[in-house]
Amino acid sequence: MAVALDRIRVGSAPDSWGVWFPDDPQQVPWQRFLDEVAEAGYSWIELGPYGYLPTDPARLADEVDRRGLRVSAGTIFCGLHRGPSEWESTWEQVSRVAALTRDMGAGHLVVIPSFWRDDKTAEILEPAELTTEQWGHLTRGMERLGREVKETYGLDIVVHPHADTHIDTEEHVERFLDSTDSGLVNLCLDTGHYAYCGGDSVKLIETYGERIGYLHLKQVDPEILADVVANQIPFGPAVQRGVMCEPPAGVPELGPVLTAAQKLGVDLFAIVEQDMYPCEPGKPLPIAVRTRKFLRSCGA
């Protein structure tokens, strides 16, 4: 029998319903997402792309409350490695998302670094490696973001290592953590993205446990990933090939990840995020039901 993971709060996100954009005809309507995520047995959700769910706090609160749901976090993208000139546009985005996140009673803002390669066209937008100066901009910028988001909105930022960004591999993640203040910046460990980029989630949790502030649960298909790596396929087309797969078919094993997280002795959100953009409207719900059942079998 699985050990009860009583410090782990399981949820899901619009991403698991194929939602990547505020508005896209290939995506399910937000009402259907809310209905189905509740039906699948989840009680926590993320906001997803700002503007997908209603942005009026009173209306959104009503919609989630009557489905028995609560919000765990909002999400933003930013390119703070480019230096102080990025701050104004970053804060403009943050202020909208963080205000709604706070108003929904959530405590976290997930921060994803900007892509160095276009996730649709594969166009190289920037070098994949940052210069020393850019690393300085990135770490100082994230610390400033953490400080000001906390002071202004009462939220903790958790930085999300992500494929095709500058915080991706074990080397980059460890460099980022070693260069930032744990009082200002912690990590959203996405098990799928970290495996996609060659990292070991259990090892990271055991080594940098005090920096793990939030989890995204997903798996990668090792065979598809090998082809993606060999052919340097960008993230968007890799997702369309099914590189992010339904658990427990892929890696890493989620049971050991959740057990390692439980051992940290702190309350952690573990939000299921199975990248599936675009997908057929009827595909997400059965996967979500099976995934929730699987996570219960792990004790979560």
TrEMBL record:
Residue stretches in coiled coil: none
TM region positions: none
Family annotation (PANTHER family): HYDROXYPYRUVATE ISOMERASE, INOSOSE DEHYDRATASE
Protein name: Xylose isomerase-like TIM barrel domain-containing protein
Annotated ranges, domain Xylose isomerase-like TIM barrel: 34-296
Pfam families xrefs: AP_endonuc_2 (PF01261)
InterPro entries: IolE/XylAMocC-like (IPR050312), Xyl_isomerase-like_sf (IPR036237), Xyl_isomerase-like_TIM-brl (IPR013022)
Organism: Streptomyces pilosus
